[in-house]
Amino acid sequence: MSQDRLIKLTCTTCKRTNYWSEKNKKKVERKIELLKFCNWCMKRTKHKESKK
């Protein structure tokens, strides 16, 4: 993965970084928010894009 396209996804409930992903920053200007499984919460929660 290219470093300039790399983002990290953080759980909104426990605030832990669980996933790394990439996005095209020229086409997608807003922050990404996805439903992903959190290993610490043990359920599906919203994961938001956060700073590196």
Question: Would you mind describing this structure in some detail?
Answer:
The chain has 52 residues and is mainly beta. It has a single domain (3-50), classed as Single Sheet (Rubrerythrin, domain 2). Helix content is 0%, strand content 50%. The chain has strands at residues 6-11, 17-22, 33-38, 43-50. The chain has a four-stranded antiparallel beta sheet, with no helix packed on it. The chain is elongated and about 35 Å long. The protein starts with 5 loop residues before the first strand and ends with a strand. The model has no long low-confidence stretch (mean pLDDT 92).
Query: How many runs of DSSP E, i.e. beta strands?
Result: 4
User: What is the rounded Rg?
Assistant: 11 Å
Count of helical regions: 0
The string of secondary-structure elements, in order, is EEEE
DSSP helix fraction: under 10%
**CATH C-level:** Mainly Beta
Task: Identify the CATH architecture.
Answer: Single Sheet
Secondary structure elements and pairings:
Blueprint: E1 6-11, E2 17-22, E3 33-38, E4 43-50
Antiparallel strand pairs: 1-2, 1-4, 3-4
Q: Can you give keywords for this protein?
A:
52 residues; Rubrerythrin, domain 2; elongated
Can you give me a brief rundown of this structure?
With 52 residues, this protein is mainly β. Helices cover 0% and strands 50% of the residues.
